[in-house]
């Protein structure tokens, strides 16, 4: 028990998610338990007072809708998974919609960590802000709080496509807003272009063939990113169906620990 008025019952805990958190915390049970409870406390702002495996196995159309923010990327140069976010839309300033987007993010997070090598060695984390909307909708601080609570062990953090002004804003949030509290994590953050993150000779960590499909197509001679952007709506449905099936399959592959 930690900063909580009552103990968790067994049906309030996702054993899969707790096991992932424990391994990310380098198999330190006490640290993992504290992180897990703090995570649940953060989610309570959206009426999520517990997480169990049944909740995380099921999804609805509205939850899967927010998979449009996530992409399927291949392995990085170390053979671990790539956690890829496309920050090209705002989450509506509505607690119910925010809740759907959070549950979607948790399920993607679990799917990415279904790989034992990724779970134990860490991952490459990419946020593509190339098409990030300039306008604010009013829920940025709330979403920032939950996003910084994810248990992660990033080896590389790339922020792709940020303008000079956006870099200044992001740096301020990182250093003052508390998004990153550990100095060693802060040092792993790198502002980069798409070309730089695939440049193995100069610090890149993602092979070109591991880029998400829409970016691989952008880099072919017969395709342009602008034309891809114009047809993104047409391609959205099959992408969401594909990634929804991938997420479901990967979560199912995570063994339930006997605890």
Alpha carbon gyration radius: 18 Å
Major beta-sheet overview: 5 strands, mixed
Low-pLDDT residue spans: 176-181, 220-236
Q: From N to C, what is the helix and strand string?
A: HHHHEEHHEHEHHEHHHH
Task: Determine the mean pLDDT.
Answer: 81
* Share of residues in helices: 40-55%
Instruction: Give the spatial strand order of the biggest sheet.
Output: 1-2-3-4-5
What is the number of strand segments? 5
Head-to-tail CA distance between termini? 16 Å
Can I get a quick summary?
With 259 residues, the chain is α/β, with parallel strands linked by helices. It has helices at 15-24, 29-43, 53-57, 61-65, 95-112, 116-121, 140-147, 164-175, 183-186, 194-197, 213-218, 225-230, 232-252; strands at 70-71, 82-86, 123-128, 154-160, 189-192.
What order do the helices and strands come in, and which of them pair?
Blueprint: H1 15-24, H2 29-43, H3 53-57, H4 61-65, E1 70-71, E2 82-86, H5 95-112, H6 116-121, E3 123-128, H7 140-147, E4 154-160, H8 164-175, H9 183-186, E5 189-192, H10 194-197, H11 213-218, H12 225-230, H13 232-252
Parallel strand pairs: 2-3, 3-4, 4-5
Antiparallel strand pairs: 1-2
Helix pairs in contact: 1-2, 5-13
